[in-house]
Amino acid sequence: MLNDRKVQVVGLNMLKRKISLLILLCIAVVQHGLTQTDTTALANLYDRVLDFDETKQDSVIYYADFIESHSKDIHFARGKILSLRLRGIYKEFKNDYYSAIDYYYQCLDEAHRLKRQDYEAAALGDLAIVYNTINQPEKTRDLYKQALQLAVLRKEQSSIFTHNTNLGSIYTKLGMPDTALVYLKQAEEIAEKFPGKFDLGSLHNNTGNAWFYKKDWNKALSFFKINYVNDVQKNNREMLWYDCLNMADVYTEMSRFDSAAKFLAMAQQIASDLGSERKMADVYSLYSKYHARRAEYKPAYEYFKRWYQIDTALLSTHTIHSVTELQEKYHVKQKELENKELELEIDRQKLHKRNLILLMSVVGLFAISAVVMLLLIRNKNKQLWKQNKLIQQQNDKLAQLNVDKNSLISVVSHDLSGPFTSIKMWSQILQQSDISNFSSDQKKALYRIQSSADNGEMLIRNILYIEKEEINSHTLKLEQLDMNAFLEDVIQIYYQQAKQKDITIYYEGMGKPVFIMSDRYMLNRILENLLSNALKFTHRDKSVWLVLTEDANDVTVKIKDEGVGIAAEDIPYLFSRYRKISSMPTEGEYSTGLGLSIVKRLVDELNGKITCESGQNEGTVFSIQLRK
């Protein structure tokens, strides 16, 4: 399923065509003639520009400049927020996702400074849209959850409906359709309380996607048909493109190829009329799948190349790295604000001490001692200044060496990703075809090819992650987590992997909510590494357990398997980087030797403890103990 095109965004309202450009130009001329622009007029102009689509992108940047300049003239504080958001939308239209995210983070920062939660929620929604476009679903999910929390806090039913609908789409993309249907059901219940208030197109589309992922083709098709009929009546070409592509995908899965070809042709024509490279790329991707299912491998490969050329042009590796840097810059800026407050407090303390010294000087007490002390301090400061200068020079050299090192790693990882991409491309084409005639060994070989390519990419990501940790680029972000829900999400991710080896994953919770203050990203990476290892080193038809316990001060998570176990002589070196133990995965899965060293460093970062109990052919138990 083409998940990139399946996320329907209802928060921006950028694709409506309610007002003509001519009316807006007339409004602008009248406003230019006024001696002082009214703040209400600027806000109304901003609302109208939000309705522009990508064919009017030049007008979007024009009005962003217009609002910014006139807001300065009349000291309209919100004007900067409005202008920054419009600039982000303009860059998004131009497929410049790096710049779009930069503007959206600035907008979020300004809204936070002015304590405007409504604009904070809008900026979070904008960021979620772009992160979804560049295929970072975990970050998209987290941003939508933050936006949903703000909407619930403000009791905004429209926003709650919107974010539940979008979260349903994202959880489908993450391979968790049952969780997706829970959020979509909440959105449906809100819509039933306020009939006629909401546009249900996105809700129907995302519900259809969830049933598509569950392979219930008839249910998926019923929701897509509802949208198709409505959008034909409204002549909404933008949404009609989604409908045609969705229905073509379902008909392809049902092997109703004539119907699939009909809707594919309609989707291609609409994408061409709209002049959208992103939409055309998705059409090519589905054409590749369509021909592969018909065992027409040559046209399948040609369409796959067309999709790949457009997709890589729209989203480069450099863009993804740059987006991560922007995210870190935002966190650094928040840290700088906290540091400034600390510096002010230090300055106040220094002023207080200075006043005491002046008072002592006036009184004349300890005059000689004060003079001697000042001389000593001056001499000491001079020495410290020299030492600091030397340290700064050394730091500059180290920083340059670190930049060179990271550049080399980036180049090597980029060069290595090419062969893995090629291997995955061919294996995906084979998997999408009819392999019912393949022998058991041939199917196993095809699975090994795909697994090896995935493991190669994982190795590159792990190496890059180690280097990222070396420079402490991840900012610790604590939040209150419900461990029962969190662990169930982690298990859901590895459900398919366990199913391939007929391994059963059992979860033993506390039967009540268990909350902990921790970093979601770090904790998720710890558990994914340990659960992945448990599945690799456990024999087919065995079991793996996740057990959650707590006491007054700590929460403990245990990952227990019935695997090959670990020799006693290997346990002292278990968490060493690049050190491979003698135990081997049960079905030839790939192991880099990096996973457990990463886990140990992340647990230490969270101020926790990790222990291992194992014996050869006796299974393994990893225990992670974290403070509440």
**CATH T-level fold name of the domain at 478-627:** Heat Shock Protein 90
Compressed to H and E, one letter per element, the order equals HHHHHHHHHHHHHHHHHHHEHHEEHEEHEE
**Largest pleated sheet:** 5 strands, mixed
Structural class based on helices, strands and sheet pairing: alpha+beta
Rg: 29 Å
Q: State the CATH class of the domain at 478-627.
A: Alpha Beta
Helix content: 55-70%
What is the CATH homology-level superfamily of the domain at 478-627? Answer: Histidine kinase-like ATPase, C-terminal domain
Q: Averaging pLDDT over every residue, what do you get?
A: 81
Uncertain stretches: 1-37, 316-323
Strand composition percent: 5-15%
Give the number of DSSP strands.
Answer: 7
Commentary on this structure:
The protein has 628 residues and is α+β, with helices and mostly antiparallel strands. Among the domains are: 367-474, Helix Hairpins (Orthogonal Bundle); 478-627, Heat Shock Protein 90, CATH 3.30.565.10. 70% of the residues lie in helices and 7% in strands. The chain contains 23 helices and 7 strands. The strands form 2 sheets. Strands 2-4-5-7-6 form a 5-stranded mixed beta sheet. Helix 5 packs parallel to helix 7 (117-133), helix 8 runs antiparallel to helix 9 (157-173) and helix 14 packs antiparallel against helix 15 (277-293). The protein is globular, with a radius of gyration of 29 Å. The two termini are 40 Å apart.
Chain-wise SSE layout:
Layout: H1 3-6, H2 21-33, H3 39-49, H4 57-74, H5 79-93, H6 97-113, H7 117-133, H8 137-154, H9 157-173, H10 177-193, H11 201-213, H12 217-234, H13 237-253, H14 257-274, H15 277-293, H16 297-314, H17 317-363, H18 367-432, H19 440-470, E1 478-482, H20 483-493, H21 495-500, E2 504-508, E3 515-519, H22 520-536, E4 543-550, E5 554-561, H23 595-605, E6 609-614, E7 620-627
Parallel strand pairs: 2-4
Antiparallel strand pairs: 1-3, 4-5, 5-7, 6-7
